[in-house]
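FIELD: query
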Amino acid sequence: MPNWLTNFVLPKIRAAVGRKEVPDNLWKQCPGCEQTLFQRDLVADLMVCRHCGHHFRIGSAERFRMLFDNEAFETVESPRTPVDPLKFRDRKRYTERLRESQAALGAGSEAIAVARGQIGGVAAVVAAFDFAFMGGSMGVAVGEALVAASRLAVERQAALIVVPSSGGARMQEGILSLMQMPRSIIAADMVKEARLPYIVVLTDPTTGGVAASFAAIGDVAIAEPGAIVGFAGARVIQETIRETLPEGFQRAEYLLEHGMVDMVVKRGELTATLGRILKLLREPVGLPAPASAA
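FIELD: result
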């Protein structure tokens, strides 16, 4: 849609100082309100539009810096997995798609990354997804990373926080991808059986096999504002049941109203909220002793 700032003001600036001095990524348009945002201000606002509150998708590196105390954390190397177990090919070879995503995010990257540190002074392991890596799809590597994160949390007696952002199972790995659904449930149960907190922070989008497995069983389910959370897409559901869906269907606020999530928390308040929850779960305040009978 035409915008006076990008179509009129920005070309004038470029004409005055030269295109090379005004990089194309200096501005970003908000998909929520279509306002043009100054990139530096947007980063300072944790990638949240200051006009309408739209939460942009962010990667695991940004998520770790935002969540851990003083931005101090240690990344955890994920187990190695077969690169192309099914030798899959559609319009491109699977290995080529992996190389393209790794070229954009860095060598050795995957749809998930794991780090450990402290949140609110409480030991925590965070497994965060990167939607930019093949839509955050869950394959064998993601399943292995979740299992490794759970084992690390149990070993360190730390809370496990998972931040999904995914379109679901990775079709290029077929049944091997679907097998990660029960494996991720087992991984979460390992943490719960050790009586450690397992918290899920639902971000946009959390769908498919991810929404139907580990993302649905957190001790506490938090969602970012406006996040789409659900198994199938709204259009597919509407065409299947042949009924018009309610406004805001599958959005975080709708899920909160219907008891599917415990709270919707703005990104700027997420770290403090997690800190309070972790302290309550790890250091519960004792109830006063009952009064003796007279």
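FIELD: remark
The first strand starts at residue 27 and ends at 29.
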